[in-house]
Amino acid sequence: MDKTINRKLFDEVMVPNYAPSQVIPVRGSGSRLWDQAGKEYIDFAGGIAVNALGHCHPELVKTLQEQSQQLWHLSNAWTNEPAIQLASQLTKATFAEQVYFSNSGAEANEAALKLARKYAKDHFGADKTEIIAFDNSFHGRTLFTVTTGGQPKYCEGYEPLPGDITHLPFNDLAALEYKISDHTCAVIIEPIQGEGGIIAAEPLFLEGVRALCTKHNALLIFDEIQTGMGRSGSLFAYQNYEVIPDILTSAKALGCGFPIGATLTTKVIAESFTVGTHGSTYGGNPLACAVASKALELINDPTLFAGVKQRQRMFLSGLTQLNQKIGLFRDIRVEGLLIGCELKISWQGKARELQKLAEEQGVMVLIAGPNVLRLAPSLIIPYPDMNKGLQHLAQAMLALKLGY
Ligand SMILES: *Cc1c(COP(=O)(O)O)cnc(C)c1O
Description:
It is built from 13 helices and 17 strands. By secondary structure, the chain is α/β, with parallel strands linked by helices. It has helices at 7-13, 46-49, 58-68, 81-93, 105-124, 143-148, 173-179, 203-215, 267-270, 286-299, 302-326, 351-361, 383-402, and strands at residues 25-29, 32-35, 40-43, 98-102, 130-134, 165-168, 184-189, 192-193, 199-200, 219-223, 247-250, 261-265, 329-335, 338-343, 363-364, 366-367, 372-375. The structure holds pyridoxal-5'-phosphate.
């Protein structure tokens, strides 16, 4: 260990937009992590729903090593085999016919929103520009995507903001029916709100959103950056609903930790991205695409999905039992392996404290806002690690409750 590289140095040399834990992990394997001091942790955070196959999955390591000796980067003046391969896998596995690659979730959504604006203009004229999004949604941090997201505090200080974006309450079909019009260009929605606290869209709501979009020639964009790649127990969460979007965005677990984003759509819509209308230097990079291609192959497997559902049931019963004994949560929401435990009124605002206590006990967890403990473990977390992590979490819950 290099003693000069420590958490204190972070505060000196890094821009202060994050407040990371005092712990610096240095190694990961499967669902376990080790810090600079060699202390072991069970990982229920999964890099915020990114490490869907755990840390350093041997097949992903092998793919990355092989590709790294073959070809790293070309730019978009040349295409490459891994990008074509990944795009064809994604189109085979979904409603989509064509794919645009970028490097992150925000970029995937930025492309989706730009494409929707361009498509509306190409087909219906310059007036069809309104983007409808939902309260408490999260779509990324570029100026367009952060303005589209439904948490106004994330936009503060960055004005002037991109225009013609409307926010409506989630799961409220009447509100959308009232507001949507032929001026609406697109509706963007997370089938399960992640950052917003693990809130699933009701099936009837999503079906209604689809019908209203179709009626008004507005594109329906599903942001599946957090819910996709097996997280919900299907490859993409839309596959659990009887609703097909026009555009779908993926990132996070798409590369299982190697940065990549993708915007999926139909051929007719994709046609609006004519040569030169959008682009990215790194998008479709061979290293990223090779890893994502292998990740998709490993994740898009009925046995893996059955394992997600099995783990989902075990987390639900494990967390329910803990809560019956200790009683901090008013609601436990388990959507595949995206899990939100909402604190009771008397414990409101304590999610971060619980997260810190959990880390002290040896389990890494996430939060979604001040009142929700969020878990997004590996989709293949070994059962003994799951049980061990839940035991550590129980200790943390007791420590919060008893105040030590
Ligand atoms: C994480 C996330 C994003 C942003 O992805 P980045 O890779 O951080 O840009 C967008 N939408 C949703 C639903 C997310 O969970």
